[in-house]
Amino acid sequence: MSKKALTIAVPSKGRLMENTLKMFASIGMTIKKTGHERGYHGKVIEHEEIDVAFLSASEIAHDLRSGRIHLGVTGEDLVRETIADHHKRVTFIKPLGFGHADVIVAVPKSWLDVDTVADLEDVAAQFQKNHGRRLRLATKYVNLTGRFFARNGFFGYRIVGSLGATEGAPASSNAELIVDITSTGETLVANHLKILKDGVILMSQANLVASRNANWTSAAIEARNKIEQRILTEKTPE
Amino acid sequence: MQAETAQKFEALEQLAAKLREVFTKAGFEPVAPAILQPADVLLDCSGEALRARTYVFSDLDGHELCLRPDLTVPTARLYLERNPTVHEEARYCYNGPTFRYSPADGKNTRPREFRQMGLELYAMNDRLAAEAEIFKLTIESIEKARLSDYKIKIGDLGLFTAFIDAIDMPTRWRARLKHHFWRPDAFHKLLRELSGDEEGASQTKNSWPLLDSKDLLGAMLIISNHMRDHKIPLIGTRSLEEVTKRLIDRQLDTAEDRLSKEKVQLIEDYLAIQGPPRAAMARIVDLTDKADIKIAKAFKRFEKRLDLFKERGIEMKNTEFSAEFGRSFEYYTGFVFQIEASNSEEIGPVAGGGRYDGLLKKLGAMDKVRAVGCAIHTERLLTLVEGEME
Q1: Does residue B47 sit in the same domain as residue B18?
Q2: Does B84 have pLDDT greater than 80?
Q3: Same domain as B369, residue B352
Q4: Residue in B52, B223, B234 closest to A146 by CB
Q5: Total domain count for chain B?
Q6: For a disulfide at B373, which of A125, B74, B120, B269, Cβ 3.0-4.6 Å?
Q7: B157 and B41 share one domain
Q8: Residues B27 and B44 grouped into a single domain
Q9: B94 and B58, same structural domain?
Q10: How confident is the model at residue B198 (pLDDT cuts 50, 70, 90)?
């Protein structure tokens, strides 16, 4: 991808990008875009040997898996969702204290009879009897959902793909329940949904992540050690 | 699949031909169901767990398809295509590639692609005769392949159902126990919950008046008022009636006596039964006598089945009954069996099958259609036979 020693990927837009750049600046790494303002490449002013790629958070997760980049800043939720065997492919170096979002299970508030995941299997049995099908669950997190429910003994559901706003699916009758991310819970309230008591699948935040599959030359390792050292001694900003 | 040597291909073809001869002679028609199957049919039927071991993908029209993870469902769909309204007795056999997801890191021992051979017998009224026919043919084909050192495991999910039905408890608890039978962890958790050892799902204090279980409309009114007062709109597909009914059930559960320790122990004891079929029967009689419960009908059927097997000359060598056996395949409903090599457990079972009376209705049949079948893993069988010859 680059002739430089190490490639680090940072989110290409929004608050996640701002916070990431601020974090790197605080450890003495000033990241600047090269070329025009809307481009995707950057450099670290203080470190010529480091190449910077501006990518979407989900692309970063994919590229960490394939090893196209050495390091990346992205959400833990995306890493766990995108990389099935993530413990073999990546290393979480440090949670960064921003980009907080929980992956949660939510059902309509009007389900007064449902408080926990254990209730869901009973509801599924009742639903199957009355409606002749499984409960539909809208989510973008197919893998996280599957693993969580397999562990917690809920099987009576079918995943329906979710392209747009997942939280709207129950109200529009496209799904009975959802698995989605939430940071403040406001969207859930607005959509008349509630989180199950034991329905937090993952408390996610932005992480600095290393790919195990990247080309770890001695120069790359040296550059990584420098960054790691500084970032690990830095206090996590809240 | 790893590329096959011409030799292995030849050997597998010969083995398949040998078995097919046994099956066609017995009146089973060779069929070739589609390899590509609509994913939603399989997922609806087997649940999302299937996704984790199946190759699912979308085609250019956006349809979700999958490579068949076994041949029972595809063959049942073929039967329903041919017999959409009147479900006539039919005997099919098949042989073809099957696909299961396996991580591509090269170290796995399970192949992603393997051949599965099998038999399915639909809509035969005489249940025991149908079971004996499939069981006998499976053993015959294994013997014909010259595998001699094997053991058989049998089970009967009908016995479990009868056992639960015979124990005194609220009907809805029985339904829940049966529903969770296939997931041992969830099943034990539920047992603990019903016996009061573990706080269940339904222990929250409610902020509405007591519901009268005999007055559903009245209860619905209370709940609907509660929702109005708390500005909770009723959204989605589940109705007020469904929510209310479950709230009533939960309320009844809290008022109910817990499932006694003796009953929990009885269920655990039953599930732990394992051994030669006749000895297992004696153990079941012993258990039911002591607990003073009656499962006569299911027990008689089990007994008659064993007698019939004997009458048909099925030599049941190295056979063990296991009360718990059958738990890992959700579609089985009655007699189940499995054959594996005696000393090569790491290779996995070479054949398995049983009764699955619920599947065809799930796939769209008008009524319940009785069905018994078996599947044979011919590649494992070949490996074992070649191993015995060395």
Answers
A1: no
A2: yes
A3: yes
A4: B52
A5: 2
A6: B120
A7: no
A8: no
A9: no
A10: low
In chain B, which residue's Cα lies nearest the Cα of A160?
A: B40
Domains within chain A, CATH numbers bracketed? 6-100+205-233 (3.40.190.10), 101-203 (3.40.190.10)
Query: Is the pLDDT at A59 greater than 50, yes or no?
Result: yes
User: Are both B46 and B150 inside the same structural domain?
Assistant: no
- Neighbour-count burial of A145, counting CB atoms closer than 10 A to its CB (0-12 exposed, 13-18 middle, 19+ buried): buried
A194 forms beta bridges with A107
Specify the DSSP element, H or E, that contains B152.
strand B150-156
What is the value of pTM for the model shown?
Answer: 0.81
pLDDT of B364 over the 80 cut = yes
| Residue B331 belongs to a domain | yes
The amino acid at B97: P
Classify residue B337: in a domain, yes or no.
Answer: yes
Taking any CB pair shorter than 8 Å as contact, residues of chain B touching chain A are: 40, 43-44, 47-49, 51-52, 103, 175-176, 179-180, 183, 185-186, 189, 193, 200-202, 204, 206, 223, 226-227, 232-238, 240, 242-243, 245-247, 250
Residues of B in contact with A125 (CB under 8 A): 175-176, 179
Chain B CB contacts of A171 below 8 Å: 235-236
B344 lies in a domain? Answer: yes
Domain that holds residue B342: 6-31+70-162+284-389
Measured CA to CA, the distance from residue B378 to residue B382 in angstroms comes to: 6
Strands of A71-75's sheet, edge to edge? A31-33, A41-44, A47-55, A6-11, A71-75, A206-211, A90-95
pLDDT in tens, B313-322: 887 778 999 9
C-alpha to C-alpha distance for A84 and A64, rounded to whole angstroms: 12
Chain A residue numbers touching B180 (CB-CB < 8 A):
121, 153
State both tokens at B175: 């339904």
**Residues of A contacting chain B (CB within 8 angstroms):** 84-85, 108-113, 115-116, 118-119, 121-123, 125-127, 130-131, 133-134, 142, 145-146, 149-150, 153, 155-159, 170-171, 173, 176, 192
B336 within some domain: yes
Residues B176, A122: C-beta atoms closer than 8 Å: yes
- Same domain? For B60 and B80 the reply is no
Taking residues B106-130, report their average pLDDT: 87
Residue A37's pLDDT band, with cuts at 50, 70 and 90, is: low
- B183 CB neighbours in chain A (<8 A) are 153, 155
Of B23, B45, B67, which residue is a domain's last? B67
Confidence of residue B97 (pLDDT cuts 50, 70, 90): very high
Quote the minimal CA–CA distance from A124 to chain B in Å: 10
Q: Is the dihedral of CA B205, A109, A126, A159 positive or negative?
A: negative
